[in-house]
Amino acid sequence: MSNQPTLLEKVFVIVTLFLSTAALIPVLLETEGASGITPDPYTPLLFMGVYGVTVMLILSRWQNFMQVASKSIWLWLVVAVALASMAWTIDPDTTNRRAILILGTSGFGVYMAARYTIREQLQLMAWAFGLVIGLSFVFAIALPNYGVMSFQEGGVHAGTWRGVMTHKNILGRLMVLSAITFLFVGLGKPAKNIYRWLAWTGLALSVVLILLSSSKTALIALVSLLLILPLYRSWRLNYNQVIPIVILVILVVGGSAMVIFDNLPAIAGALGRDLTFTGRTDIWSAMLDKISERPWTGFGFNAFWRDWDNEATAYMWRYLAWECPYGHNGFMDLLAELGIMGVFAFGMSYLTAIWEGIRLLRLTRSIEGIWALMYLTFLLIYNVSESTLLATNSIFWIIYSSTVFTTICDRQFLEKSYLQSAYSHEEDQDWLLN
Q1: pLDDT tens digit string along 122-138?
Q2: Nearest CA among 369, 370, 388, 391 for reference residue 379
Q3: From 63, 155, 375, 425, which residue has the greatest number of CB atoms within 10 Å?
């Protein structure tokens, strides 16, 4: 059996990544008269098929998969806590199904890490985002009833683009990830120049969709990531060069922070926000009150935000006086679902990934060596006001899983190569001396 992925295998990955963006199907199912989120019976069935195929692909290269999967115990501990929460969840039906699905989502991420290099993963992701971009323009222009916001949220966002996503902000968030993906592909070493031009085109169209979605959070996140990228690249310099750069960054960030905090009300107003992050602090305060009932274990994976029949959700909705769909903070939602145990496990996996990303950054000069730090930064930025951490069938968790394991494997491989090279060099010196 060939060690190189076949074209059919790559197409399978691209389609899976496209489905994991939650594009197209939820939009087609949405109806104006429906209250809340329209049920989607098709996507779970599709992902059961996806995970079935993934299991077969894993079994065909079981030893390779296990070697990669054993590199990070912390990520598996997060999944283990989600599975264990089936024993104490307040919504057994939801938790039992979603916990099994998060195992499949994580397994697909590890499969990607075991089968593809970072460069290949970025290219596959770029194809998936390209499908989202192309369909978003088609829907917004040719099918505006689907591709443009209209009646959603009482029509307050009418006229803004959402493409094949259910909300303009979801499109904006995905296009931020799309933009940095195309940026890394463009800065890399594609096999042909045409791929480089396609990458720059994908980057440009991603930015256009961010602007058309009018998502201020997405625009701020993208600008922040573009400013952070040169800082990460500077970490490859020697320490005498890094220290002045770090001092300069501290001065610039410190000065900017002072200006921002001195003018916070005016800045918030200009962005269409208030000092409660558009009511988010009220949500977090109410969540902390409820979480205090189960601080260590939480209420069960995906069991906190459900419906009026759910005790935790009903409490939150009565307190807030509106049907809030989630906590607008990934870490708060994780704490509510899996308690301190889950947050600790995820925190350790995240900090370990940061450390491994820094070590890989120092070992390689390729642009792909910075990917782990960039993606982890993206995840942190967005989970301050959104919730994209531990989610089933989600491209964000798939990429997190693949990034964690790929980074460790690449770092260990490079260190081993350098040690072997140094050992061979010492042997050559001994031979010359003799």
Answers
A1: 999 999 999 999 999 99
A2: 388
A3: 375
